[in-house]
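Message: Study each token:
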Amino acid sequence: MALTRSPSGGTRLYLISDDNATDSQRTLLLAFDWVPPPPPPPLPPKPVKKKPVRKR
């Protein structure tokens, strides 16, 4: 297993499996690119509660 930076700026994961010199198995090299999802949008500001006006 190996991790590197992909050309797109994400992370590339390499996995390799060995055939153990057996005809019934095969050697595979797999590469996966992962890009983290964008951050969520900011929450809207909370409304300001106005204090009630006291009448005299």
Summary: The chain has a mean pLDDT of 90. The longest strand covers residues 11-17. The two ends are 76 Å apart (CA to CA). The CA atoms of residues 19 and 26 lie 4 Å apart.
